[in-house]
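Let's study a protein:

===
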Amino acid sequence: MSVTAVCRKCGGKAASDTFRLDYKAGYVVCPNCYDGARKNAPAKSGIQGPADRKAAPVKPEAPKPAGWDADDAAAEKLYKQKQRVAGQVESAGVDRLKFSCPKCSYSFTFHKEKWPKSCPYCDTAIHSRTTF
């Protein structure tokens, strides 16, 4: 003999040991409501297919000047990378610098003379040792 309980969703009665937690509703429901919710809900996995993704807007590239070659493209790439890293380091006092990790955006301060090898939060290597 089992104890019967009333379902909060439909008001029906069922054995209390058959109730299951409905994560969307946030409370336990009878087997009929649980199975009904599972059948009506579309099967959705964590992996998105190509139809589920929204296409990112493509930025049109500015036209390159005459005489632009692979060396210029490599130099521009290095310059942008250096600017990205250099822009994340700023002064935080007389002897201290403030750095924002490019991977996790964690901000931390350190002494100018003791540059850290990696981010203390995500352990990403810090390669740039810019002098300020």
Helices lie at 31-40, 70-86.
